Predict the structure.
Amino acid sequence: MTKRNLLIYNTLSRQKELFRPINEGRVGMYVCGPTVYGDPHLGHARPAITFDLLFRYLQHLGYKVRYVRNITDVGHLEHDADEGDDKIQKKAKLEQLEPMEVAQYYTNRYHAAMERLNVLPPSIEPHATGHIIEQEELVKEILDNGFAYESNGSIYFNVEAYNEKHRYGRLSGRNLEDVINHSRDLAGTEEKHNQVDFALWKKAQPEHIMHWPSPWSEGFPGWHCECTAMGRKYLGKRFDIHGGGMDLVFPHHECEIAQAIASQGEPMVNYWMHNNMITINGQKMGKSLGNFITLFQFFEGDHEKLEQAYSPMTIRFFILQAHYRSTVDFSNEALQASHKGLERLMEGIATLERIQPVADGALTEAYAAEVEQKCYDAMDDDLNSPIVISHLFDACRTINQLADRSTSITPAGLDKLREVMRVFAFDILGLRAEAEADSGREESFGKAVDLLLELRAKAKAAKDWATSDQIRDELASFGFEVKDTKDGATWKLNR
Ligand code: ZN
């Protein structure tokens, strides 16, 4: 395997650290996955792509990586991890579905979106509902160690007792007083001894659909338990990397650290990594702001804030053009610029395939090796993908000079340059060429459908209902939904 000095920023130590896995050649990595109660949106794309970049790079370096990314399908509550209604349960009630139907539907949607973004599937994708026993085991250990208490059938983590022995707030840099001052007073908190305490197990109210038996009550685990319990089950009591979005640092990851130490006496994770957030036109994404755009809406251009559709690779490239710890602001202009940039890079790689080498070329293997070295150096500096991209763009300028013969390259130099471009663009950044003809082909499809609808209108005018229905039904079987309006028929393609 390639020995490299990879630096990664550890949120816990607040500095870049040399990455050294616990077991040589192997990496254990856990990333908080989606809560599956709604369509995947931009906020899901960033952590998925950030940790996909890390997953790909570690594998490229020759590590065997066990990448665990969970599915949160219970216990994630609307306002607070302790009170209120479970989001999935809420959706299930609203749509009169079994909660697991809701979870499965959005899990499938998430997988479909990830596949289009070329995000590799994790090695293990555990579901919170499939690990209730492991979570109860964790709660028992914390109770036995005296860091939790029972109150009316629910179990709460005793933050103050924990803080006396171990510091609470080490990841987020908060101290207990800050936390107390920022805690909101919520209904039902009388069960807790202290408002900063968080639920490890909640007794189910009669209206709660998702509940399991436990020694304390018929209920469900608190949200923070699942990642600690599943991380330990699949990666062991001590593992290398735990990642997620910055919004998870507090309370989720802070509580995970407390749970780990309270149960096993020592931390579970060596490197905590967090990606920054995404804003849209400078604003936080939110349903109330009308800028909540799902990934499928981006892919189809189906939102009033979008001037056009943006392909999955445009979105991926756009996210990779920022360092994962910087904020990213989505706007139509920025996405259009990314689309052009991606096209330039893909054209460069395609052009390179057509270049003819010359034996005494001006550029040799040394040139390609230099491009490679610069790209590795950028990746080793805390996954600096924007710098990698800028080096690939520089190489594209050289490729254009090769194409117009203002310079030349040796056979060995050409082979090496092709390899370097492919490895960094496809294997590590995870880009893939989207069918160049896609937009042109879709235009042709559209024209063909319009033509069929014209023929259908003629059939209808001639009262040939059989033909008219046949055209509509056959189009429907290919996914084209035809709607008759007073101004004629319209259609859309359901994917
Ligand atoms: Zn988590």
Notes: Confidence is low (pLDDT under 50) at residues 78-84.
